[in-house]
């Protein structure tokens, strides 16, 4: 459920980039073509989205106290 919430917290473009690249296994170039963007824009949104997702999940983890001490 946390991943679903994290994805829903992203703006639509960033969420679409993540879904296309990681869940539909599309390349950045393929994603760019579908979204009518240049590849560098998709790369930026992918990188920034991953950072946002990580921050969201870390915050949830800290709130619930379920962190895995690795």
What does the model show?
This protein is mainly alpha-helical. The protein is 77% helix and 0% strand. It has helices spanning 2-9, 12-23, 28-35, 39-64. The protein is elongated and about 40 Å long.
Described by its quaternary structure, the protein is single chain
As a whole number of angstroms, the C-alpha radius of gyration is 14 Å
Number of helices: 4
User: N-to-C SSE series?
Assistant: HHHH
Helix content bin: over 70%
Structural class: mainly alpha
Q: How many β-strand runs?
A: 0
The N- to C-terminal Cα distance equals 22 Å
Outline the biggest β-sheet: none
Q: Which descriptor suits the 3D outline?
A: elongated
User: What share of residues are in beta strands?
Assistant: under 5%
Task: Note poorly predicted spans.
Answer: none
What is the mean predicted local confidence, pLDDT?
A: 91
Descriptors:
70 residues, mainly alpha, 4 helices, elongated
Question: What does this entry show, briefly?
Answer:
This protein has helices spanning 2-9, 12-23, 28-35, 39-64. By secondary structure, it is mainly alpha-helical.
Write the layout of secondary structure elements.
Layout: H1 2-9, H2 12-23, H3 28-35, H4 39-64
Helix pairs in contact: 1-4, 2-4, 3-4
